[in-house]
Each structure stands twice: as C-alpha cells, then as structure tokens.
Design brief:
homodimer, mainly alpha, 10 helices, DNA-binding, Homeodomain-like_sf (chains A, B), DNA-binding (chains A, B), HTH_TetR (chains A, B)
Amino acid sequence: MPAEAKVPSSTARPAAQPATPPLTERQEARRRRILHASAQLAGRGGFDAVQMREVAESSQVALGTLYRYFPSKVHLLVATMQDQLEHLHRTLRKKPPAGETAAERVAETLMRAFRALQREPHLADAMVRALTFADRSVSPEVDQVSRQTTAIILDAMGLEDPTPEQLAAVRVIEHTWHSALITWLSGRASIAQVRIDIETVCRLIDLTDPAGRA
Amino acid sequence: MPAEAKVPSSTARPAAQPATPPLTERQEARRRRILHASAQLAGRGGFDAVQMREVAESSQVALGTLYRYFPSKVHLLVATMQDQLEHLHRTLRKKPPAGETAAERVAETLMRAFRALQREPHLADAMVRALTFADRSVSPEVDQVSRQTTAIILDAMGLEDPTPEQLAAVRVIEHTWHSALITWLSGRASIAQVRIDIETVCRLIDLTDPAGRA
DNA sequence: CGGTAATCTAGAACAAGTTTCAGACTTGAT
DNA sequence: ATCAAGTCTGAAACTTGTTCTAGATTACCG
C-alpha cells in the first residue's frame, strides 16, 4: 500500500505524538534538510526571509513536498522552534542554574535562553512571530512548544510535584516571557527592560513557594 | 501648495500625536469610514476577513488611498485597536471598578475588557493578531496602544504616583494580558483559564503596594 | 520480478497584500 | 479665475503564500 510511508508531521521523537507514522530514512533526511534550510534562512532576514520557494529549493525538495511536510509557513517555523527548544533544553540540563531560590533559578534560566536568542535575533524573530501568529490550525504544535517551555521552567524550579498555584505562576511566567520577547524583537523594549520584566514576574514564585500555603 | 490639507479641524484628541498633519473634514471622514469598514469586516471573519480590497471598496475609497492612510494591513488593524481602546477607556471611566484592593480592581477591569472582547471574538482576533505580528515599522502605533493600556491599568489601580516597582508590575500584567488573549483566541486556553492567569498576575500588585511605602 | 498505491517533482495557477501609474480632482494661493 | 501641488481614483502589475495537476519515482506486497 503505502510507499514512502505516510504523511509526516511533527517530531522525530518516538515518545511524543500519538499519530505520527514513522518516516523513511530519506523522508527523515528531507525533513531535516527542510528544517535546516528554514533555520538558515530565518537566521538572516527573520520571518520575511523564510520564503517557501526558497526553503524548498534550498532543501532540494519540491514545493508541493514542502507543503506535505509542513502545511504552512507557520507550521514550518513552529516546528523549527520545537527543534531549537529541544536543543536548548538539552544544553540547559547539562548546566543547571545555580541560584539560591527557585525564582532566581528560573530567572537565570530564562535570561540564559534570552542570551541564546540574542545571538540569532533574526531566527528568534521568525520563530516568535510564527508562534504568536499561529491560528487554531497550529494549536497542537504550539501547545507542544508551550509544554516544552513549561518543562524547562519546572526543571529550573527543581520541583517534582508543583502545586496548582505554582503551575499558575509558571503560566504567567510563560506569558511574560513570550510577550517580553515580542516587545524586544519589535524594538519597543531594551534588553535591560526584558531582564527586569523577567525578574519581576519571577517574584511570583516566591509568592507561592516559601512562606505561602503550598 | 497642498490640496485637501491644512484644515486643523479635529483629530479629536488634541494632546496626542506630534507630527500628524491635520486632516480635512473629508479626509477625516474617509479615515473614519475606513476604520469602520475594518472593524466591520474584522467583526465577522477576524484577521483573514479583513482584506484590503474589500476594506477599500466597503469604505468607498481607492486601494491606493487606503494605503496612503494606513501603510499596511497591520497598521490598519492596530489603528482599529487604538480606536476601540479609546472607546473602552471612556466606558471604564464612567464605571470604575469597585474592588477593595488595587489588585482586585485591576483584575476586575481586565476581566471587564475581556468580556467586551468575548462579545466580538473575531474583532478581537484581528486586533490582537495584528498587534503581536507587527514589526518595527509599526512600533510607534503599537507603543501608543501599549501606553493606552498602561493608562487603563493605572487608572484601575487608582494611583497618581506609581513607584518604579509598581510600573514594573504593570508591565508584566500587560504582557500576561496580551499573551493570555492570544492563547484564548487560538483555542489553547479557556475563558476560565484566562481569568485565572489574570488573577494570578494581579497578585504581583499586592507584592509592591501594601507593605511598601505607597 | 511485477503491480500498485503512495510519494515526489516540476511547474502552472490562484489569492491576497502591496506597489505603481496615468489621469482626474481639490485645495489654497496668487 | 487661474495655477501649482498635493490627493484621489481605477486598474494593472508584482510578490509571496498556497493549491493543483500530470507524470516520474519509490516502497512494499505477493
């Protein structure tokens, strides 16, 4: 029946999506080439520089195939972000933050991530814009990014069993993180400002953990 | 020299933009028609339904003229949002929030705004997506929206002389507000969830005000 | 091997945002 | 009233995301 297997869609991780039929090696390679080209183009030029025709050409794939793998430009860029986030998470695991309190560690972690983004501001632009511009059709993928981000923050807090209040705080931290990134990317906030925002929101953690009812 | 220019009639608010050459009455009328058409189309269909050709036709204006007034679709939608925000602010002034603490009043105000958006979810979609998708070329306009939002929140807090810490909290509240809206609009968070996020972030205000010097 | 269904390719075609242009129209000044 | 300069209009053109099609390839089953 099938030839080169079924329609691909998300991650390469086996322990992730439920309905992701496995990919041929050649397909996996194509997918990887596409994501690489996407990140490459995004790296200089940002969101606008990632043009589907160029991605296709650059990754040696027909336009139609590109769209079979990633049903829209936003899907593509969100997938690119998933990729980068995984990479970041691995890096962070190797060198956990050293702060005293949970709030400090989270702030340190986010600032580290922020510095990584500063090294590739155009790539950051492409990914973050895609993420916030995504409509309902990309919800699953965006949600996956969100879960990954949550995991990173919880890791930094060093909690195995967060309370609902703490999870609420994490949600707000994520909101702030995304929105602060946007203001920075669009030139409306300085790097210093972003740091302040992050540090401010991280104080919410103190509010829930040490003294409060847990 | 100029033609339909120079009549210093009304931009309504005299204390707003610095370098906005005043508009003729006919121009003011055009501008208003355009914004009305924009809101109308956004009202059903959201971001995608606001098509520049339709806006032009619907507001009895040539496409080129539309682009003279609003240099891009995002500019147009952000301007639409400015419009709506002013309206909201006026409404809110009439019925200030009744909560005991500043945090309660801010949360109440934002929830009220949220309910207003729920009545026109498509319009909300168009405006918020435009806002977060805006690139640097729209910074001034987006900044104006941000200032207006800040003003609304500060009003709710009832402060005439906010401390830097309080301003920081307000910034984070705004971040959360925008990002929470996005998650709601893209179907990744429920209304209840948004309420929780808002209430959570508003606790930051308690952190700055009651104990410290006011 | 041969068959066949799914995949891939190349390229045209379509949609909506944006730009451009020639000509008609308005406005304020002389 | 006339004129110069800025505005508006209508329409075509251009760009880039997205869809579609016909035919060549590929993977797997028997």
